[in-house]
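User: Run a structure prediction on this.
Assistant: Running it now.
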Amino acid sequence: MKSFAGSMLNDANLAIKYLLQFDSVLPVPGIEKVEEIEENVDIVNGSWKLTPQEQQEMEDIRGRVGPRLCRRCGYCMPCPQGVALLPLKNMHMLWKLFPREWTLSWRYVTDGVESWKNCDQCGECEEKCPYHLPIQEMIAENIKFYESVTGGKK
């Protein structure tokens, strides 16, 4: 099963049941195998009511993810100064998903970190973000995180 919320949700049952609570939302989960289609159909055909345990799990996820979730839609791009916004905004997610040594040496990440020096704080990325994320602040935090785990090496 492909992930939800930028790999922050890995429980298809919980994610789909949660989304089915809203009339104006149509869940469109990614699939890789026929079994996943069958799993999705079973979820939709079952009870959509979240149990108290599932509701608590959603609250726990909200607390972990917070309100600053980048959906990786790409609307903030391109940056006029060539800053690689996506890897910079999603450093923590990449750190959680992939082997750490690989993440730290991945050109997608290292080139992104290097591109940060070009940022002139114009704010164009934040103006374009449909989720009104504080992109510059998020990137600054992620650069600090990257430097803390690499000892400042790029």
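The CA atoms of residues 1 and 31 lie 6 Å apart.
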